[in-house]
From TrEMBL:
GO MF terms held by the record: histidine ammonia-lyase activity
Protein name (Swiss-Prot/TrEMBL): Histidine ammonia-lyase
Catalytic activity: L-histidine = trans-urocanate + NH4(+)
GO cellular component: cytoplasm
Native organism: Anaeromicrobium sediminis
SUPFAM superfamilies noted in UniProt: L-aspartase-like (SSF48557)
Length: 510
């Protein structure tokens, strides 16, 4: 079985995706285990000496001024979990739950949280044996971390709550028993160590950012198909244009378009058919490039957060000191994930405008709605409606969550990030955008068939055209459209078009 070794410092987005979506197991690094053991020993010392440390010998939030005795430590930690499990709504998907679990395990393995090694081992065992806690999507403020959803993650760990095992939702204790895992009894600091962090919002947003990167590459390909269908002008992608305004995403995108349509007999030069194209073709390096720059910015923040410690208090065993700070606050990720929402929404926005250019005879010069039998047949008329609806929904979802804050815990926690809402929004926008691009793919290949066929397509567009036509045949008569959209969406989700094009022309710039 393929494994990812976690040490708190070197988890990559690729590692995260492999655990979340490809069933990789997780193993704790040996040096990391030593750090965890040392951190735990210092927590035990604090408890034995009855030092006043938040969350270890005190209550939580507004109750931080309430002292907790050594004898009450276990009750305190269990009560924390069961009282904080206040999530509502549908449960997160399995890949997000696995991403949450591995990110939390990775943060704990840095050795600044005071977790018992056995508790961390049990969390890792749950990942490896496929016990996936039922974690409702809603209920987190993104500070103090993702308290409610992470509490749901912990419930099966302590033999409570609900979990999925082999695809079936059941009581958490039953899932643990069926997987042969012994639940743990939490002691001082452990409940807080498990739930006081940003792993839910970061896991959700990280997977959305990963999908957004792939979607942005595919959008270059789908736009290239549209360019070929409309005999678009390639001069606007000339490297000289972009060198005088050298934004990386813009320059990369211009290069991508020229490589994808290389050797095409369908594209044109300025003045051959028309002097210039509309913005949705001519300005693609600027539009797609700006989204790519935003996505890369978000990915850089994800890389930091995946290997950060977002607990409170932090245990510095080497210095024998515990500090109550604010690393649980989700603001460093809330703003990037709001930025990600806008970046992905714009990919869909311009894709829908290209669909309109394909189906509108006044703009394309092609048969109306890409059907030869207009009137009797509606062709791609309502496919554009669906894309427009998705784009409009994205505009609502793109409203920033991070600009809002509602005080909590009797104003002790008086500013929160709402970062989990931002991350969920990015995920939802990415889903909608992927369906818009799927509609563009099937519209563009239909337009190509109506405008001379695929013989003179470029190196990359030819490959993409063939991949789409493997699952969606040319429209001659009206048929049930959603089936074709779903087939194209499966191509988008599997990333096979990007992989095939990159195999043919080399990796696309990003």
């Amino acid at each position: 079985m393929k494994k990812v070794i976690i040490d708190g410092n070197s988890l990559t987005l690729k590692d995260l995706v492999n655990v979340a979506r490809h069933g990789y197991e997780v193993e704790l690094d040996g040096e990391a285990r030593k750090r965890v053991e040392k951190s735990r020993a210092f927590v035990d010392k604090l408890v034995d000496e009855e030092k006043v440390v938040y969350g270890i010998t005190t209550g939580f939030g507004k109750f931080s001024d309430v002292s907790i005795t050594k004898d009450e430590a276990k009750d305190l930690q269990r009560n924390l979990i069961i009282s904080h499990a206040c999530g509502v709504g549908p449960n997160f998907s399995e890949d997000i739950v696995r991403a949450i679990m591995v990110m939390r395990a990775n943060a704990l393995s840095k050795g600044f949280s005071g977790i018992q090694p056995n508790t961390l081992d049990t969390l890792i065992e749950m990942i490896n044996k496929g016990v996936h806690p039922a974690i409702p999507e809603k209920g987190s403020l993104g500070a103090s971390g993702d308290l409610a959803p992470l509490s749901h993650m912990v419930l099966p760990l302590i033999g409570d709550g609900e979990a999925y095992y082999k695809g079936e939702l059941m009581d958490g204790i039953k899932a643990m028993e069926m997987a042969g895992i012994t639940p743990v009894e939490l002691t001082s600091k452990e409940g807080l160590a498990l739930i006081n962090g940003t792993q839910v919002l970061t896991a959700t947003g990280a997977l959305a950012a990963y999908d957004a990167k792939n979607l942005a590459k595919l959008a270059d390909i789908s736009a290239s198909l549209t360019l070929e269908a409309l005999n678009g002008i390639v001069d606007a992608y000339d490297e000289r244009v972009h060198k005088v305004r050298p934004h990386k995403g813009q320059m990369d995108t211009g290069k991508n378009f020229l490589r994808i349509v290389k050797d095409s007999g369908r594209t044109t030069r300025q003045g051959e058919i028309r002097v210039q194209d509309a913005y949705t073709l001519r300005c693609l390096p600027q539009i797609h490039g700006a989204s790519k720059d935003a996505i890369n910015y978000v990915l850089s923040k994800v890389d930091i957060e995946m290997n950060g410690v977002t607990d409170n208090p932090l245990i510095f065993a080497d210095d024998e000191y515990a500090i109550s700070g604010g690393n649980f606050h989700g603001q460093p990720m809330a703003l990037p994930f709001d930025f990600l929402k806008i970046a992905i929404a714009e990919i869909a926005n311009v894709s829908e405008r290209r669909i309109e250019r394909l189906v509108n005879p006044a703009l394309s010069g092609l048969p109306a709605f890409l059907t030869k039998k207009g009137g009797l047949h509606s062709g791609f008329m309502i496919a554009q409606y669906a894309a427009a609806a998705l784009v409009s929904e994205n505009k609502v979802l793109a409203h920033p969550a991070s600009v809002d804050s509602i005080p909590s815990s009797a104003n002790q926690e008086d500013h929160v990030s709402m970062g989990t809402i931002a991350a969920r929004g990015a995920r939802d926008i990415c889903y909608n955008a992927s369906r818009v691009v799927a509609i563009e793919l099937i519209s563009a290949v239909q337009a190509i068939d109506l405008n001379g066929g695929s013989e003179k397509l470029g190196l990359g567009t030819k490959v993409a055209y063939e991949k789409v036509r493997e699952v969606v045949s040319t429209w001659e008569d009206d048929r049930v459209m959603y089936r074709d959209i779903n087939k194209a969406a499966e191509l988008v989700d599997s990333n096979v078009i990007v992989e095939a094009v990159e195999e043919a022309i080399g990796e696309l710039e990003f």
